[in-house]
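User: I'm preparing a small set of examples for a lab meeting where we compare how different chains pack in three dimensions. I only have the primary sequence for this one, and I'd like the structure in token form so I can line it up with the others. Please keep the answer compact; I'll paste it straight into my notes.
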Amino acid sequence: MVRQSVLLIGLMATATVAFGLSLGCAGGESRPSVELEGVVTLDGEPLPAGSIQFTSTKTGEAAYTNLDAGGHYQIEFPQADIGSEYEVTVGPPQDADLDATAIVENPPEQVADLVPMKYRDRTTSGLSVVIETEGKNTFDFDLTSK
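Assistant: Understood. Below is the structure token output for the 146-residue chain.
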């Protein structure tokens, strides 16, 4: 009788673990890959140098890239939050060899004058997007100097 109870408890434990694992694998939210692209302009003209950053309001995850000479950007999020808002900031180009403090304290001169300060902070930029679909999403941003 003791042997049957131990066997029954072992089978129940195994079934519980297997059920839990199946819920964990199937019950989580899908976070597909997305590609964000677009053009950043300042007063109607392509921003010739700068960077753009997208930050999820849901998870805090962020990604940035530098703009090309035509103001174009392209960023890939390997796992995005579909239907969620992303706050956007635009600032000076980012140099991977410099640390963040050095960039903030001494931004490159030619761009520091181009990007108004309000766009450099996600709480003041007024820029945000909602990623609606997986795959390619296009968002253009027209900044104003005034």
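A couple of notes for your slides: The chain has three helices and nine strands. Residues 54 and 63 are 6 Å apart (CA to CA).

User: Perfect, thanks.
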